[in-house]
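Chapter review: from sequence to fold.
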Amino acid sequence: MPIYNSSQQKNLVLGLVLLLGAFLFYSTLNIFTSLLGSIVMYTLFRPLHIYLIEKKKIRKSFSALIIIVVSFLIIIIPMLALSWMIINKLIAFQQNPEIASKLIDNVNKLGGSRINKPELIKNGISNLSNWAIGQFSSFINKTFRIFINLMILYFSLFYMLVSYENFEKTILKYLPFQKRNSLRFGKELKNMTYSNIFGQGIIAAVQGIIVGIGFLIFQIPDPIFWGIISFFVCFLPVVGAPIIIVPAGIIELANGNTIAGLGIIIWGIVLVTVADNFLRFYISKKIADTHPLITLIGVIIGVPFFGIIGIVVGPFLISFFLLLISIYEQLYLNADKE
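The token string follows.
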């Protein structure tokens, strides 16, 4: 005779599943961002994978390898290059302290003395510089961990792509919704991924080009460098290109270059703002009919929790939440009224 009846066995198995699931979830928190990243990458490159398999008759494993190489070249390499460029710029300032000292003094004369706190700007810039160097030192110290996370991301992505049919069937099977509602979630993730990567990428590229051209026109040093920096900065909401343009204008004004200083500020505010507003609303409607406020709040929430992947995950979670409310209302609230 069994010790437990069928009901007790069921509850015991469920308890063990929940306990082990909680333990596994806690154990994978350190690589959670990598797993999220692999899902986002899968969503992003799935159409290319299907095209290579069905149209070009390429084996699934080879197609997955092609996608991994392509994604590495267009996503990971630029991020590493950006880090290298910024580190070199910081090193250049450290090796030539007289440049930074003169710059700080000029800005200090322009702003600090006018508010009767001549050391305010100097101390602020010094603190910012120390923070930036500390952040990059931390980044270098975490290189091994970053490498491991990238390996996990691409390892997961490879098997998602190779077994994409089974992967999608399994997801649909275990989502607690009808198939049509599960497909709505998949469509929402696809829309958010395309809107916040392709769409935001286009916006950031246009703004970076505008900043670079403005620096070139007004003969401000390193237009290519600051154009590239602006491209990456423009992925962040609220901050955007002004965090590059306004300080550049202030520095030019402090150095006595009034035309260049006022010119780059006006250039940036007018053209960058117009481009941002036009492209953001057009792309959000064209690629995904997503309210810009969802994207803005989602990115603000997502980036601190999930890092760069939060650009997609944050807005998706808000859309996911709203979609859950909609499904609950359709299935239960409307049913109760009837």
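Two observations follow directly from the output. The first helix runs from residue 6 to 27. Confidence is low (pLDDT under 50) at residues 114-118.
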